[in-house]
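Severity: low
Component: inverse-folding endpoint
Summary: output formatting inconsistent between runs
Steps to reproduce: submit the following structure tokens with default settings.
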């Protein structure tokens, strides 16, 4: 209980109480016939320095610890990913690989400000990589919500229409470009090649959990001096994305 005396909340109780509240919400929802997913929207920083749901990985760990992961999924907001120091697409991927990708708040933030500006999205790189993750995940159980508002100088009704049209068009274009990236195939081909050493031999044994540090140590010693590492081809992959987005291929 020392934590009380230095004016820090008893974190264990607070986490358990949040989990109790969430269990009660699930029980009540199920009792009135609600069969859908509950969503939790990770967000760091606001309104305080320590957030229990800092990012997707933190929230997923919390839900699993307290037995809530079958009832909850992530609602990933682009601007919150930025605040957590992640990219939007990374938060989507973390959710998807854990079976927890639910829905999306499709806004964007200001990379220079460090708080939640909830701008309507216009960044087509970001919407493309978002839709790439959605397509790779096989879709969403939820949907898209802008969670965005006009900037203060945009003060007419016409501006509101323009903002929603901008957001819709940005994500529609992102969807088309994400599909084009997948159909192009070069990104997937590179990734398959990059990890191909895990498909056979000692790599396959690692993946299947059929080896040990001792065996790997012996294996590494037998290899002798390592060859130069293969190229990560960062600039090549970025040029592929540009070619697909802007049609220079
Ligand atoms: Mn939101």
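Observed output (run 2 of 3):
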């Amino acid at each position: 209980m020392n934590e009380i005396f230095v004016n820090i909340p008893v974190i264990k109780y607070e986490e358990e109480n949040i989990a109790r509240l969430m269990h009660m919400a699930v029980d009540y929802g199920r009792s009135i016939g609600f069969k859908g997913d509950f969503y939790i929207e990770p967000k760091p920083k606001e309104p305080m320095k320590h957030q229990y749901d800092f990012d997707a990985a933190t929230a997923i760990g919390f839900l699993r610890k307290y037995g809530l992961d079958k009832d909850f999924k992530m609602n990933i907001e682009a601007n919150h990913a930025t605040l957590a120091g992640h990219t939007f697409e990374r938060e989507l991927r973390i959710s998807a690989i854990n079976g927890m990708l639910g829905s999306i708040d499709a806004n964007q933030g200001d990379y220079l400000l460090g708080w939640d500006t909830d701008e309507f999205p216009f960044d087509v790189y970001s919407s493309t990589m978002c839709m790439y993750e959605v397509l790779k995940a096989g879709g969403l159980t939820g949907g898209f919500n802008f969670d965005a508002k006009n900037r203060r100088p945009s003060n007419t009704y016409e501006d509101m229409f323009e903002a929603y049209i901008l957001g819709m068009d940005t994500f529609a274009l992102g969807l088309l470009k994400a599909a084009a990236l997948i159909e192009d195939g070069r990104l997937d081909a590179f990734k398959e090649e990059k990890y191909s050493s895990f498909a056979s031999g000692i790599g396959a044994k690692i993946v299947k959990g059929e080896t040990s540090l001792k065996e790997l140590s012996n294996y590494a010693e037998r290899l002798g001096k390592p060859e130069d590492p293969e190229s990560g081809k960062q600039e090549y992959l970025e040029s592929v994305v540009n070619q697909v987005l802007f049609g220079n291929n």
